[in-house]
Description:
Elements: H1 17-24, E1 33-36, H2 64-77, E2 81-84, H3 96-106, E3 109-114, H4 124-130, E4 133-137, H5 146-150, H6 154-174, E5 179-185, H7 194-204, E6 208-212, H8 233-240, E7 248-251, E8 274-275, E9 280-282, E10 294-297, H9 303-308, H10 310-322, H11 336-346
Parallel strand pairs: 1-2, 1-8, 2-3, 3-4, 4-5, 5-6, 6-7
Antiparallel strand pairs: 8-9, 9-10
Amino acid sequence: MARDPFEMNGHKLHWQLERVNAWMKGEAIAPLYIDMGITMSCNINCKYCYYAVPENQHADRIPIDALTRFLRDAAEIGVKAVGFLGDGEPTLHPEVYEAVAAGKAAGLDMAIATNGVLLKPERLPGFLADLTWIRFTLSVGESDRYHQVMGGRPKTFEKVVKNIRHCVEIKKAEELSTTIGIQMVLIDECVDQIVPLAKLGRELGVDYVVVKQCSQKENIVQENRLPAYDAFEPIYREAESFAAPGYNVIVKRLKMGKTGRCYDRCHGTSFLPQITGRGDVYCCGNFFGDKRFHIGSIVEKSFKDIVAGERYRQVMEAVRTTVNVHKECGIGCRQNEINEFLWELKSPPPHVNFV
Length: 355
Protein backbone atom coordinates (compact mmCIF):
# COMPACT_ATOMS: atom_id res chain seq x y z
CA MET A 1 0.00 0.00 0.00
CA ALA A 2 1.40 3.37 -1.02
CA ARG A 3 2.15 5.92 1.70
CA ASP A 4 -0.33 8.75 2.23
CA PRO A 5 1.84 11.76 3.13
CA PHE A 6 -1.20 14.02 3.47
CA GLU A 7 -2.98 11.77 6.02
CA MET A 8 -6.12 11.75 3.87
CA ASN A 9 -7.23 8.45 5.36
CA GLY A 10 -7.08 9.79 8.88
CA HIS A 11 -7.14 13.04 10.85
CA LYS A 12 -4.61 15.54 12.17
CA LEU A 13 -5.70 16.09 15.78
CA HIS A 14 -2.37 14.66 16.96
CA TRP A 15 -0.89 18.00 15.93
CA GLN A 16 -3.60 20.01 17.68
CA LEU A 17 -3.21 18.68 21.21
CA GLU A 18 -3.61 22.03 22.94
CA ARG A 19 -7.15 22.33 21.56
CA VAL A 20 -7.84 18.64 22.20
CA ASN A 21 -6.69 18.94 25.82
CA ALA A 22 -8.94 21.96 26.35
CA TRP A 23 -11.87 19.98 24.97
CA MET A 24 -11.02 17.01 27.21
CA LYS A 25 -11.21 19.35 30.22
CA GLY A 26 -14.71 20.40 29.18
CA GLU A 27 -13.73 23.88 28.09
CA ALA A 28 -15.61 25.67 25.33
CA ILE A 29 -13.42 25.59 22.22
CA ALA A 30 -13.45 27.25 18.83
CA PRO A 31 -13.45 24.99 15.78
CA LEU A 32 -10.07 24.15 14.30
CA TYR A 33 -11.25 23.94 10.71
CA ILE A 34 -14.42 24.73 8.78
CA ASP A 35 -15.69 23.11 5.59
CA MET A 36 -18.03 25.44 3.78
CA GLY A 37 -19.77 26.27 0.57
CA ILE A 38 -19.93 29.79 -0.75
CA THR A 39 -22.47 29.13 -3.52
CA MET A 40 -25.47 26.84 -3.99
CA SER A 41 -25.15 26.17 -7.72
CA CYS A 42 -22.84 24.33 -10.10
CA ASN A 43 -21.95 24.54 -13.78
CA ILE A 44 -21.57 20.80 -14.43
CA ASN A 45 -23.59 17.74 -13.48
CA CYS A 46 -21.47 15.05 -11.83
CA LYS A 47 -23.35 11.79 -11.57
CA TYR A 48 -22.28 11.11 -7.98
CA CYS A 49 -23.06 14.58 -6.60
CA TYR A 50 -26.17 15.39 -4.61
CA TYR A 51 -26.28 18.72 -6.48
CA ALA A 52 -26.99 16.77 -9.66
CA VAL A 53 -30.72 17.00 -8.94
CA PRO A 54 -32.68 20.20 -9.73
CA GLU A 55 -34.14 20.61 -6.23
CA ASN A 56 -30.63 21.14 -4.83
CA GLN A 57 -29.68 23.84 -7.31
CA HIS A 58 -30.15 27.45 -6.16
CA ALA A 59 -28.74 30.81 -7.15
CA ASP A 60 -27.96 31.67 -3.52
CA ARG A 61 -24.45 32.60 -2.49
CA ILE A 62 -22.85 34.23 0.52
CA PRO A 63 -22.42 38.00 -0.04
CA ILE A 64 -18.79 39.05 -0.05
CA ASP A 65 -19.17 41.43 2.90
CA ALA A 66 -20.62 38.65 5.07
CA LEU A 67 -18.00 36.22 3.81
CA THR A 68 -15.02 38.45 4.56
CA ARG A 69 -16.49 39.33 7.98
CA PHE A 70 -16.85 35.63 8.72
CA LEU A 71 -13.23 34.94 7.76
CA ARG A 72 -11.96 37.70 10.05
CA ASP A 73 -14.19 36.44 12.86
CA ALA A 74 -13.03 32.86 12.39
CA ALA A 75 -9.37 33.84 12.60
CA GLU A 76 -9.96 36.01 15.69
CA ILE A 77 -11.58 33.21 17.71
CA GLY A 78 -8.91 30.64 16.85
CA VAL A 79 -10.08 28.85 13.71
CA LYS A 80 -6.93 27.83 11.85
CA ALA A 81 -8.18 26.88 8.39
CA VAL A 82 -11.17 27.25 6.08
CA GLY A 83 -11.92 25.25 2.97
CA PHE A 84 -14.33 26.35 0.24
CA LEU A 85 -15.30 22.79 -0.53
CA GLY A 86 -18.99 22.16 -0.16
CA ASP A 87 -22.38 22.72 -1.73
CA GLY A 88 -21.97 24.39 -5.16
CA GLU A 89 -18.96 25.24 -7.29
CA PRO A 90 -17.01 27.99 -5.45
CA THR A 91 -15.62 29.61 -8.60
CA LEU A 92 -19.18 30.57 -9.56
CA HIS A 93 -18.92 33.14 -6.77
CA PRO A 94 -17.83 36.39 -8.47
CA GLU A 95 -15.62 37.37 -5.52
CA VAL A 96 -14.03 33.99 -4.80
CA TYR A 97 -10.53 35.37 -5.43
CA GLU A 98 -11.10 38.27 -3.06
CA ALA A 99 -12.54 35.93 -0.42
CA VAL A 100 -9.51 33.64 -0.47
CA ALA A 101 -7.20 36.66 -0.26
CA ALA A 102 -9.21 38.00 2.70
CA GLY A 103 -8.94 34.69 4.54
CA LYS A 104 -5.20 34.54 3.96
CA ALA A 105 -4.79 38.16 5.10
CA ALA A 106 -6.70 37.35 8.28
CA GLY A 107 -4.20 34.60 9.09
CA LEU A 108 -6.17 31.54 7.98
CA ASP A 109 -4.89 28.64 5.93
CA MET A 110 -7.20 28.63 2.89
CA ALA A 111 -8.13 25.80 0.54
CA ILE A 112 -10.53 25.26 -2.33
CA ALA A 113 -12.02 22.32 -4.20
CA THR A 114 -13.14 23.13 -7.73
CA ASN A 115 -14.14 21.44 -10.96
CA GLY A 116 -11.63 23.77 -12.60
CA VAL A 117 -13.79 24.91 -15.49
CA LEU A 118 -14.19 28.60 -14.64
CA LEU A 119 -10.77 29.54 -13.28
CA LYS A 120 -9.48 32.83 -14.68
CA PRO A 121 -5.88 32.43 -15.89
CA GLU A 122 -5.01 36.06 -15.13
CA ARG A 123 -6.05 35.65 -11.48
CA LEU A 124 -4.23 32.39 -10.82
CA PRO A 125 -0.79 33.63 -9.66
CA GLY A 126 -2.17 35.58 -6.70
CA PHE A 127 -4.90 33.02 -6.08
CA LEU A 128 -2.46 30.14 -5.79
CA ALA A 129 -0.15 32.15 -3.56
CA ASP A 130 -3.04 32.66 -1.12
CA LEU A 131 -4.04 28.99 -1.04
CA THR A 132 -2.52 26.25 1.08
CA TRP A 133 -3.96 23.77 -1.37
CA ILE A 134 -6.23 23.53 -4.38
CA ARG A 135 -7.97 20.29 -5.33
CA PHE A 136 -9.52 19.65 -8.72
CA THR A 137 -12.51 17.31 -8.86
CA LEU A 138 -11.86 15.25 -11.97
CA SER A 139 -13.14 11.69 -11.92
CA VAL A 140 -11.96 10.64 -15.37
CA GLY A 141 -8.61 10.59 -17.12
CA GLU A 142 -9.90 10.57 -20.71
CA SER A 143 -11.90 13.29 -22.44
CA ASP A 144 -14.43 10.96 -24.07
CA ARG A 145 -15.60 9.78 -20.62
CA TYR A 146 -16.11 13.24 -19.13
CA HIS A 147 -19.74 13.53 -20.21
CA GLN A 148 -20.78 10.15 -18.83
CA VAL A 149 -19.38 10.76 -15.35
CA MET A 150 -19.27 14.53 -14.90
CA GLY A 151 -21.89 15.78 -17.31
CA GLY A 152 -19.61 18.02 -19.37
CA ARG A 153 -18.31 17.90 -22.92
CA PRO A 154 -14.88 16.63 -24.04
CA LYS A 155 -13.74 20.18 -24.72
CA THR A 156 -14.63 21.04 -21.12
CA PHE A 157 -12.33 18.24 -19.98
CA GLU A 158 -9.54 19.71 -22.11
CA LYS A 159 -10.15 23.13 -20.57
CA VAL A 160 -9.86 21.70 -17.06
CA VAL A 161 -6.65 19.88 -17.95
CA LYS A 162 -5.25 23.10 -19.41
CA ASN A 163 -6.11 24.98 -16.21
CA ILE A 164 -4.46 22.33 -14.03
CA ARG A 165 -1.33 22.42 -16.16
CA HIS A 166 -1.28 26.22 -15.91
CA CYS A 167 -1.51 26.04 -12.11
CA VAL A 168 1.45 23.65 -12.00
CA GLU A 169 3.46 25.95 -14.26
CA ILE A 170 2.72 28.96 -12.04
CA LYS A 171 3.62 27.01 -8.90
CA LYS A 172 7.00 26.10 -10.35
CA ALA A 173 7.72 29.54 -11.81
CA GLU A 174 6.75 31.38 -8.61
CA GLU A 175 8.25 28.71 -6.32
CA LEU A 176 5.00 28.42 -4.41
CA SER A 177 4.38 25.87 -1.67
CA THR A 178 0.73 25.44 -2.69
CA THR A 179 -0.28 21.79 -2.97
CA ILE A 180 -2.11 20.94 -6.21
CA GLY A 181 -4.19 17.77 -6.31
CA ILE A 182 -6.83 15.92 -8.30
CA GLN A 183 -9.66 13.95 -6.73
CA MET A 184 -11.69 11.11 -8.20
CA VAL A 185 -15.00 10.21 -6.55
CA LEU A 186 -15.25 6.52 -7.28
CA ILE A 187 -18.46 5.09 -8.73
CA ASP A 188 -19.02 2.15 -11.07
CA GLU A 189 -18.90 4.33 -14.16
CA CYS A 190 -15.34 5.50 -13.59
CA VAL A 191 -13.54 2.41 -12.28
CA ASP A 192 -11.83 2.02 -15.65
CA GLN A 193 -10.59 5.63 -15.34
CA ILE A 194 -8.52 5.12 -12.18
CA VAL A 195 -5.35 4.19 -14.06
CA PRO A 196 -5.76 6.81 -16.84
CA LEU A 197 -6.24 9.49 -14.18
CA ALA A 198 -3.13 8.33 -12.31
CA LYS A 199 -1.19 8.60 -15.57
CA LEU A 200 -2.66 12.03 -16.30
CA GLY A 201 -1.77 13.36 -12.86
CA ARG A 202 1.85 12.34 -13.31
CA GLU A 203 1.95 13.91 -16.77
CA LEU A 204 0.51 17.19 -15.46
CA GLY A 205 2.96 17.34 -12.56
CA VAL A 206 0.42 17.68 -9.74
CA ASP A 207 1.32 16.70 -6.18
CA TYR A 208 -1.24 13.94 -5.91
CA VAL A 209 -4.23 12.11 -7.32
CA VAL A 210 -6.61 10.72 -4.70
CA VAL A 211 -9.32 8.13 -5.26
CA LYS A 212 -12.07 8.43 -2.64
CA GLN A 213 -15.34 6.75 -1.76
CA CYS A 214 -18.72 8.09 -2.81
CA SER A 215 -20.24 9.54 0.36
CA GLN A 216 -23.84 8.80 1.18
CA LYS A 217 -26.31 11.60 0.68
CA GLU A 218 -30.05 11.33 0.49
CA ASN A 219 -30.36 12.40 -3.15
CA ILE A 220 -27.49 10.35 -4.61
CA VAL A 221 -28.81 7.60 -6.85
CA GLN A 222 -28.25 4.35 -5.00
CA GLU A 223 -26.91 2.35 -7.93
CA ASN A 224 -23.94 4.72 -8.15
CA ARG A 225 -22.53 3.11 -5.01
CA LEU A 226 -19.95 0.41 -5.25
CA PRO A 227 -20.87 -2.75 -3.34
CA ALA A 228 -17.28 -3.85 -2.72
CA TYR A 229 -14.43 -1.40 -3.20
CA ASP A 230 -11.84 -4.06 -2.43
CA ALA A 231 -12.78 -5.89 -5.63
CA PHE A 232 -10.71 -3.30 -7.50
CA GLU A 233 -7.49 -3.80 -5.57
CA PRO A 234 -5.47 -4.83 -8.69
CA ILE A 235 -6.54 -1.57 -10.36
CA TYR A 236 -5.54 0.44 -7.31
CA ARG A 237 -2.13 -1.23 -7.33
CA GLU A 238 -1.61 -0.46 -11.00
CA ALA A 239 -2.58 3.18 -10.46
CA GLU A 240 -0.19 3.46 -7.51
CA SER A 241 2.64 2.20 -9.68
CA PHE A 242 2.62 5.59 -11.42
CA ALA A 243 3.63 7.38 -8.21
CA ALA A 244 7.01 9.08 -8.33
CA PRO A 245 9.08 11.40 -6.12
CA GLY A 246 6.87 14.42 -5.55
CA TYR A 247 3.81 12.71 -7.05
CA ASN A 248 1.49 10.59 -4.91
CA VAL A 249 -1.34 8.29 -5.93
CA ILE A 250 -3.55 7.85 -2.87
CA VAL A 251 -6.43 5.39 -2.58
CA LYS A 252 -8.60 6.02 0.47
CA ARG A 253 -8.95 2.33 1.27
CA LEU A 254 -9.59 2.89 4.95
CA LYS A 255 -12.71 4.94 4.26
CA MET A 256 -14.00 2.91 1.33
CA GLY A 257 -16.93 0.77 2.28
CA LYS A 258 -16.65 1.72 5.95
CA THR A 259 -20.24 1.59 7.16
CA GLY A 260 -19.88 0.60 10.82
CA ARG A 261 -18.70 2.86 13.61
CA CYS A 262 -16.58 2.02 16.65
CA TYR A 263 -18.01 4.94 18.63
CA ASP A 264 -21.48 5.68 19.96
CA ARG A 265 -21.35 9.47 20.18
CA CYS A 266 -20.31 12.24 17.79
CA HIS A 267 -17.73 14.60 19.28
CA GLY A 268 -16.05 15.73 16.06
CA THR A 269 -18.38 18.60 15.20
CA SER A 270 -16.83 20.74 17.95
CA PHE A 271 -13.60 20.68 15.94
CA LEU A 272 -15.15 20.73 12.47
CA PRO A 273 -18.58 22.31 11.91
CA GLN A 274 -19.79 22.98 8.37
CA ILE A 275 -21.49 25.86 6.59
CA THR A 276 -23.82 25.82 3.59
CA GLY A 277 -23.38 27.86 0.43
CA ARG A 278 -25.96 30.35 1.67
CA GLY A 279 -24.17 30.85 4.99
CA ASP A 280 -26.11 28.62 7.38
CA VAL A 281 -24.00 27.11 10.17
CA TYR A 282 -24.65 23.47 11.05
CA CYS A 283 -22.94 20.92 13.24
CA CYS A 284 -22.18 18.89 10.10
CA GLY A 285 -23.13 18.50 6.46
CA ASN A 286 -25.13 15.37 7.15
CA PHE A 287 -27.79 17.54 8.79
CA PHE A 288 -27.93 20.41 6.31
CA GLY A 289 -31.57 21.47 6.16
CA ASP A 290 -32.48 19.88 9.50
CA LYS A 291 -33.82 22.64 11.75
CA ARG A 292 -32.80 20.71 14.87
CA PHE A 293 -29.15 21.30 14.04
CA HIS A 294 -29.25 24.73 12.42
CA ILE A 295 -27.15 27.08 14.55
CA GLY A 296 -27.35 30.42 12.77
CA SER A 297 -26.39 32.36 9.65
CA ILE A 298 -23.10 34.14 9.03
CA VAL A 299 -25.02 36.46 6.69
CA GLU A 300 -27.24 37.62 9.55
CA LYS A 301 -24.89 37.43 12.51
CA SER A 302 -21.21 37.60 13.46
CA PHE A 303 -19.57 34.18 13.56
CA LYS A 304 -17.91 35.18 16.84
CA ASP A 305 -21.34 35.74 18.34
CA ILE A 306 -22.65 32.49 16.86
CA VAL A 307 -19.87 30.39 18.40
CA ALA A 308 -20.17 32.19 21.74
CA GLY A 309 -23.95 31.86 21.76
CA GLU A 310 -26.22 29.50 23.64
CA ARG A 311 -27.64 28.00 20.44
CA TYR A 312 -24.18 26.82 19.38
CA ARG A 313 -23.68 25.11 22.73
CA GLN A 314 -27.14 23.55 22.63
CA VAL A 315 -26.72 22.10 19.15
CA MET A 316 -23.27 20.68 19.84
CA GLU A 317 -24.62 19.10 23.02
CA ALA A 318 -27.61 17.70 21.14
CA VAL A 319 -25.31 16.10 18.58
CA ARG A 320 -23.27 14.46 21.32
CA THR A 321 -26.24 13.22 23.33
CA THR A 322 -29.16 12.58 20.98
CA VAL A 323 -27.85 11.53 17.57
CA ASN A 324 -27.69 7.80 16.92
CA VAL A 325 -24.51 7.65 14.87
CA HIS A 326 -25.26 4.08 13.79
CA LYS A 327 -28.59 4.99 12.19
CA GLU A 328 -28.76 8.73 11.50
CA CYS A 329 -25.35 9.48 9.98
CA GLY A 330 -24.39 8.93 6.37
CA ILE A 331 -21.63 6.78 4.93
CA GLY A 332 -18.32 8.58 4.50
CA CYS A 333 -18.91 10.99 7.40
CA ARG A 334 -16.43 13.88 7.28
CA GLN A 335 -15.85 13.71 11.04
CA ASN A 336 -15.57 9.92 11.26
CA GLU A 337 -11.82 9.58 11.86
CA ILE A 338 -11.88 12.53 14.27
CA ASN A 339 -14.62 10.74 16.18
CA GLU A 340 -12.67 7.49 16.31
CA PHE A 341 -9.73 9.32 17.90
CA LEU A 342 -11.83 11.31 20.37
CA TRP A 343 -13.90 8.28 21.37
CA GLU A 344 -10.71 6.41 22.20
CA LEU A 345 -9.50 9.32 24.32
CA LYS A 346 -12.81 9.36 26.16
CA SER A 347 -12.77 5.56 26.60
CA PRO A 348 -9.20 4.56 27.53
CA PRO A 349 -8.28 0.89 27.91
CA PRO A 350 -6.88 -0.59 31.14
CA HIS A 351 -3.16 -0.24 31.91
CA VAL A 352 -2.54 2.95 29.90
CA ASN A 353 0.91 3.35 31.44
CA PHE A 354 2.11 0.20 29.64
CA VAL A 355 2.82 1.95 26.36
